[in-house]
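Subject: sequence -> structure tokens, single chain

Hey, anyone have a minute? Need the predicted structure for the following. Not urgent.
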Amino acid sequence: MALIFFVMSAAFHYGNLKGVLAWLLPKSLRVNLVTYFVDLLFVTSFLSFLMAVLYQTIEGGLLGSYLAELPGAVVLVATIFFADMVGYFRHRLEHSRLLWSSHVLHHSDEDMTWMAIYRFHPINRMTTLVIDLGALLLVGFPAWAIAINYLVRHYYGAFIHTDLPWTYGWLGKVLVSPAMHRWHHVREGRGVGSNFATVFSVFDLLFKTYYVPGPCNVPLGVNGINQQSYFSQLFLPVTDSWRAITRGFKRLTKGVEEGGGKG
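Reply:
Had a minute. Here:
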């Protein structure tokens, strides 16, 4: 994958060596690599175990026998389309107060190259697996179609994170373009809260979250988050939860004191 995107970068920044190096060696590279190796060494084995549990727990699904009678190509397209719909709503949930603290790590990348596809918090990886795979198994999609779906969505997801200005023109109303997803990663402005799909932009159009005014050249990242600080982002779900608990406790004790005073 690195070789493919190197060729793409060299072609896009032809005659601009500085542009190629900036594209290949962004400031976020260190945290991206740390995230990748932490995931590889510690997270992947747990996710594999969790995947096996889901497969054993959910067998057949609701439409498994019906899907088995359909042509393979139809089943594969249906799997990818349904997975992207589930991913759309799961992604919107990640931007809610419930899961945002575990999704910040992915959005704090101010450069956003293809390596951002590996820049995910362990909790974010776990919730993605449980929601996406759980939904596919509940419907009854076969294992081979689910596996191919993951490959397609993973590599296409890496592609739309590349720093390319492509909007696809009219095709952008069907498929997610790199420019469309880049607008999703803007630090502030209209793009925030838009463009949640990975493959099919039709979901954003349908649910009125589509926003692609053109190529995206505005600052990326998250206000108040240092993209270079991996561990502060790793523990952000814990620190945010602790703050919420202490705030709730203070409100509770204040309410008790005020009630006692009135009594």
